[in-house]
Amino acid sequence: MFHKNIKVDELTHKYYIDLPSVSALLKLLPQYKNDYKDCSVEFLKPYQERGNCFHKRVEFYINNNFDLNCNCEYSKELHNNLFNNFLFWYDDYFLNINKPQTEISLINNYFLGTFDFMYLDNDNNYHLLDWKTNKITNQIKTLTQLKLYEILIKDNLNINKNTKFIFECFNPNENRFITFTNKQEKQANKNVKYILNILKGEITNE
Ligand SMILES: [Zn+2]
Hints:
Radius of gyration: 18 Å
Bound molecules: zinc ion
CATH class of the domain at 20-40 and 96-199: Alpha Beta
Structural class: alpha+beta
Shape: globular
Organism: Mesoplasma melaleucae
Helix content: 40-55%
Protein name: PD-(D/E)XK endonuclease-like domain-containing protein
Largest sheet: 5 strands, mixed
Oligomer: single chain
Number of helices: 5
């Protein structure tokens, strides 16, 4: 594979790809630039642990139909509650879920990212979902994130350019399944356009 951003680390002789991730791209948007800026590493740790635990268990469950259990030191009860909320939700939708794909990492010429979950429904629409394990989520930010994954998916997987994508989010903390409004779609499209302009060097990011 040819990629202009493959770099070599002279010390370790390891190759890596020097491209921004989807999460890094979201920080290019002025309105989200300062999210978590004032939070210490120590403060964020339990939230990250909760998120990692949930993502790992869900990935394993979707791929193997079997639960890994929580091996975290703290907050086991909360972690188990989040996973149980997911199970109830997943069972409800299970018969409409075909070709599930989870935690797939993709790359194009401009950025890279790993989406949480994608499936084909019985009407042949693709659903692209994100899991949010914190109570408060900015829905337009989540939708922007999902639309960036859509670009990676269309650039990589053999999916017809006209295929309809339905964007959704499941929040096991609020036990809430989130869909998006047309107004939110418009705002997210603006965000994506802004990010792509920066990536393609058409404007500078001051
Ligand atoms: Zn856990």
